[in-house]
Amino acid sequence: MIFVEKAESRTVSTEGKLKKSSKNTNNKSKSLSSHELYFNRELSLIEFQRRVLSEAENPEQPLLERLKFCAILSSNLDEFFMIRVAGLKSQVAGDVVELSYDGKSPVEQLKHIRNNLIPIYKQQEIILKEQIFPELAKNGIVIDHYRDLPDKDKFALKEYFQNEVLPLLTPISLGPANPFPRLINRSLNIAFVLDDPTNDNPEKHVAFIQIPNILTRFIPVKGYDYLRYVLVEHIIISFADIIFPGLIIEAANTFRVTRDADFDIAEDEAEDLLSEIAEQVKQRNWGRAAVRLEVTAKMPDYLANLLMKALELEPDDLYIHDRPLNLVDFMELLKLDKRNLKDIPFVSKKIPEFLGEPHELFNYLKKNDVLVHHPFDSFSSTTVKLISDAANDPDVLAIKITLYRTGSNSDVVESLKRAAENGKFVTAFVELKARFDEEKNIIWAKALEQSVAHVIYGVPNLKTHCKIALIVRRESNKLKTYVHLSTGNYNQVTARLYTDIGYFTSNEKFGEDATYLFNYLTAYSYHKDWNHLVVAPVDLRLRLLELIEREIELHTPENPGMIFAKMNSLAHREVIPALYRASQKGVKIKLLVRGICCLRPGINGFSENIEVKSIIGRFLEHSRIFYFKNGGNDEYYLSSADWMSRNLHRRVEIMFPILEKNLQDQLWRILNIYWEDNCNSWNLLSSGEYEKVKYTDDDEPLSAQNFFLDDIRNYKLFQ
């Protein structure tokens, strides 16, 4: 029997949450618009971060992977502050009183965010200082402080500092000629309090050093049979007397500023969208308002107050950490050759039909549709191979593709460039507004243009988030189309880190839809008669509501309805009430929602037929799979879209059906294996807390991700 075990340290009650039991509530008086039926979007996202941190606390995780999850938490919260908190602060500054799902004002939400984050940050400190760092030392990875080193090492580090670090530093003292410096967003900085013994003026001087990002964070201490490092900021502080000769260093503390990183482009007014976005990215790093100040625990109050005043921040914007700042840098340690401290490497399964010559692949796809589950099925030998084969095949005339996040050193982009150089008509829809990937996408866009590819920068005022490629090939004096659709990006790096589903088809109806979709993207045409694709913002929202409503209408006690959906986030003010109505009718609803979930399950009279689970593991669960029972005529869909307002209203997204029975069976198997997970699964309670699912001694442990990894290992054994 699988049971739910509540881990006290992982299900901390948070201020502003609903009461645990809904049985004592008079539900009859509620309407579907009642604030009590919804969780706060921001607090739900924080609960996701709590689940991420639980992986860092999990002793069953390899040690460096635990460190990775600590770093991921910090990276996630950076983005949370840069976008979500910045947005709330903008609302407060603009006197905007827009209530959240659960009825909170922006001011109230900011208070609850801080109250919920402080214990998470505290737990992160405990995990690092009391568990991970000591265990790393036991395993031959020691992070020392300069003061604890023997003299011979100090001498060597002094020489290293003078030769490799000092020439790159630019100290700036506050004064009439030097106002408070423009600190780069998320950069690591040191604040020095200086005393001039030759000056009778008792006023202290303050100086800053912004640590250049070209400096390695981990300075190796040589001469040991284990890995020994000193952090670069400790080296700089230890030799501050060389930087400030003749001055007394009274205090030296690291700090970090997080700035508003969101921006809106008036696309109808921007003559050159590429240049405008490039300029906005610069502003994000330098000129936007600060939203958070992080300092080390030993920073004097007067220095923290000086920083807050200069950055125009309030005490609630100050976060004090008793651990190193900029934890994302610690991901560097995962590159160490310490296999016993990391996840077991895996080799993705290669699909035999994709391994031949280009004409062999197209001949196979002409007769067979293919479904792949990444990263368990290889991305490089399927999706990348298809684009590469199309670039080389003399019978391919055109390639059209959407690029949202391609990453660095993209083989897909290289194939597109080669295809254009080979005389094929290549059209790439590069979404310049893909947040935090704008600079990379600008680089790829320019490179594609130089190869004579036709580059389109998306639809005005919408993000092109759909993932689709169309290949047009001449066969027997006729044009034949091949289509690739996916829940994830054309990114070979994240394809190893995220779970996604890819679909390959030569179905003519899909090819026709793909042609119209690309016309919509280039000419902003409004096509209505889609064969299979459901497109946002055209009709995806309405179609989802229709599918839910159909389950309600077809549900009977003898043939109960069912919705089984997997997605990243659920936060839509029409979809959630529709799910409540379905639950009230008796439709069974099973939801796998990795991150944000504003739906409150388990409320008598509203959502007692809804269960919500979240899977947190080695891979980021990114696939979107939707199942509707449809009275027994099962329908399966894949999508690039979550059930959120931004996906259904402000992005170009697609949802598409999987029609072949054998491929439907694959999706059903995937959904059910995830649902039965009792190692990495969390149940969402009606209180808003998540409880870790545990197995008893009578049960076999089941990690869905490990199950799929075992699948590919077993596959290779029989090859």
> What's the CATH topology label of the largest domain?
Endonuclease, Chain A
Distance, first to last CA: 36 Å
Average pLDDT rating: 89
Report the principal-axis shape: globular
Q: In the CATH hierarchy, what is the class of the largest domain? A: Alpha Beta
**How would a textbook summarize the main sheet?**
11 strands, mixed
CATH architecture grouping of the largest domain: 2-Layer Sandwich
| E-strand count | 30
Helical stretch tally: 18
Radius of gyration: 27 Å
Helix content: 25-40%
Q: Indicate the low-confidence ranges by residue numbers.
A: 1-25, 266-271
Q: Please, what is the CATH homologous superfamily of the largest domain?
A: Endonuclease Chain A
Strand content: 15-25%
Number of domains: 3
Protein structure class: alpha/beta
Word description of this protein:
With 719 residues, the protein is α/β, with parallel strands linked by helices. The protein folds into 3 domains: 140-313, polyphosphate kinase like (2-Layer Sandwich); 352-530, Endonuclease Chain A (Endonuclease, Chain A, 2-Layer Sandwich); 535-717, 2-Layer Sandwich (Endonuclease, Chain A), CATH 3.30.870. It is 35% helix and 22% strand. Helix 14 (540-554) runs parallel beside helix 15 (575-585). The protein starts with a strand and ends with a helix. The model is unreliable at 1-25 and 266-271 (pLDDT under 50).
